[in-house]
Structures are given as C-alpha cells and as structure tokens.
Design a protein that fits this description.
CATH class: Alpha Beta
Radius of gyration: 18 Å
CATH topology: Rossmann fold
CATH architecture: 3-Layer(aba) Sandwich
Number of helices: 9
Order of helices and strands: EEEHEHEHEHHEEHEHEHHE
Number of strands: 11
Number of domains: 1
CATH superfamily: Alpha/Beta hydrolase fold, catalytic domain
Largest sheet: 9 strands, mixed
Distance between the termini: 27 Å
Strand order of the largest sheet: 1-2-4-3-5-6-9-10-11
Shape: globular
Structural class: alpha/beta
Strand content: 15-25%
C-alpha cells in the first residue's frame, strides 16, 4: 500500500483552516472518513502517525488546525468561543461530504477538539456516524485543566532555543517518551525576533484568573457544560472514550457522568500514559481507533444502532 498525504486549505466559518489528508489510492473504496481535531495548543501534526495508520487501514483521514492554531487563520475579532469552533467544524464537515460523497464520517477529537466534536455530533445527529473522544469528558478535573492552561500561558516571551521548549514540555509531561529529535518541535513553534514562540493566537486566553477553567462556575463555563450535557444526551452514534491511565483531566466520576448520559459509550483506558494519549502511545491508540471505527461503520449499516459499550476495557 502507498499512503499519500496532501496539505489543503479548507473552509471554516468565515476563515480558512489548514489541513492534511491521508489516503491510500490502491485501497479501493474507502471504509470511511475520519476528521481528526487536536487539543488546545496543539496542531494537526499531532495526528500524523494516526492519519497514516488510518489510511493503511482503508480510511481517509483529515487532520485540521483549529482556528488560531498552527497554519489556520486567526479570526479578526478574536472569537474562540464554542459557537465559532463548532461552526468551523460543521462547515468543514459539509465541505468534506461534498468532496467525498456517500462515505461514512467519524469525528475524532482530543481535549478541546473533543469538546467541539461532542457538540457537533450531538447537535446534528445526521452529520457523523461515529464519535471518538480522546481524554475529555463533560465533567473535567479542575486541577488538570489548570495545569494545561498554565503550560500554554507559561512562556509569553517565547523560548531562547528549541532545547528550552523541549524542557518545558518534559516538565509538563514527564512520563512521555522523547526521541531527542528537536526538529519536530518546529511544527508547533515559530521563530520571531530570535525567540521561539508557540504557534497559536494568545488571544485565546482572555482571563487572568481561574474563572474560565472548564468545570468552573463562570457563566461561560456553566453554559458550555449545560450545552455539552444536552448534546451528549442526544447522541445516537457509536461513541468511544479513550482515557490515559495517568490522566489528570478525566476521572472515574467524569466517566460515570458520560455513561449516564450515553449508556452505549465504550471506554478504553490506555496504560502508562497521561492526557496526551494519541502522542504518548500512538500505536496502541491508533490500533484501538481503527478497530472501533471499523465496527462503528458496520453498525451504522445495520438496523441495530449503536453497539453496546464494553466496560473496563484496557489497552
């Protein structure tokens, strides 16, 4: 098999999104399309190995930079609210459907991308045939969310070298294996005035306090949680949650709430990894993802609906 990857400019809601598309032209009719949405502060490049794995398994994979991230446009009005984010993905999904007619579609979202994916899938039942959430639920742990946000805010003046950036990543995620190759960091950093800066729009953070943290009691946080619960309760397509065993974002209580809202949810714990599941143990994650999506496509073509959840599954 010969996997091909193309870099594309894709439509969002009033702005353009940068994306990569993986496919295997020798695989025949595609099994489905997977739209891969990264977490806050990441870029589409975090999905590279997953995209390749999906293409080898007969899927078409699209990974996009969310607005304000990577090579995607920064909105002139600085709008990074959930309405804007979900509008982007609906516009993107509609474009992909026109480009790949008649092919089943799945949303795969990590962290922030998962929040957006849940809203899109739950609020538009006909849009996608499967949903995968990567280390994100509705009820998230405040301390873990604070760590993520503090890391993203931690170097407003940038880094003097790639080695400094790598050290900051290691301090945030000490359990992650590092290859020692710093070249990959250049996909997430940009050199400006002699210093390396994370490649996202700093306007994504409007507050200095903790009131904007997920799970907080600010009006915005409460409204997003309420909307997410409503979307989850309407979800009918197969759902898999992949949690890192060492995650400080997703707790057993958060999983219990999700299962109450989505009784057919399948939960997989990946051993010895944290919040960055797809990057921490990509081979294990990708294998579970392919198996689930293949099964989801089969169930979507039957009259039985979503397949039953598998309690306590580990990888």
């Amino acid at each position: 098999m010969s996997v091909q990857v193309a870099t594309l400019e894709l439509p969002g809601s009033g702005l353009s999104l940068a994306g990569d598309r993986w496919s295997d032209p020798d695989a025949g009719d595609p099994r489905g399309i997977a739209l891969l949405l990264h977490g806050g502060g990441q870029t589409r490049h975090s999905w590279r190995r997953t995209g390749e794995r999906l293409a080898r398994a007969g899927w078409i994979a699209y990974a996009v930079d969310l607005r304000g991230h990577g090579d995607s446009a920064w909105p002139a009005d600085g709008d990074y609210g959930m309405n804007a984010m979900t509008a982007d993905i609906r516009e993107l999904a509609a474009h992909v459907r026109r480009s790949e007619p008649g092919v089943p579609m799945a949303l795969v979202g990590a962290s922030l991308g998962g929040k957006v994916s849940l809203l899109v899938a739950g609020e538009d039942a006909d849009l996608v045939q499967a949903l995968v959430l990567v280390d994100i639920v509705i009820r998230v742990e405040t301390e873990g969310s604070r760590r993520v946000r503090d890391f993203m805010r931690g170097a407003p003046e940038g880094f003097g070298s790639l080695e400094e950036a790598a050290a900051a990543i290691s301090a945030y995620n000490p359990h992650r294996k590092h290859s020692g190759n710093l070249e990959g960091l250049k996909k997430n950093l940009r050199l400006r005035d002699g210093r390396w800066h994370w490649h996202w729009d700093p306007r994504m953070f409007r507050h200095d306090g903790d009131d904007d943290l997920p799970g907080g009691d600010s009006p915005v946080s409460v409204a997003i949680a309420k909307r997410s619960r409503a979307a989850a309760s309407e979800l009918r397509c197969p759902l898999m949650l992949v949690r890192g065993e060492q995650s400080d974002i997703v707790s057993d209580e958060g999983i219990a709430e999700l299962r109450e809202l989505v009784p057919h949810a399948r939960v997989v714990d990946v051993n010895n990894v944290g919040h960055m599941v797809a990057g921490d143990d990509n081979d294990v994650f990708s294998a579970n993802l392919v198996d689930f999506l293949d099964e989801a496509v089969a169930s979507a073509g039957s009259a039985t609906g979503p397949f039953p959840e598998s309690a306590g599954k580990r990888a």
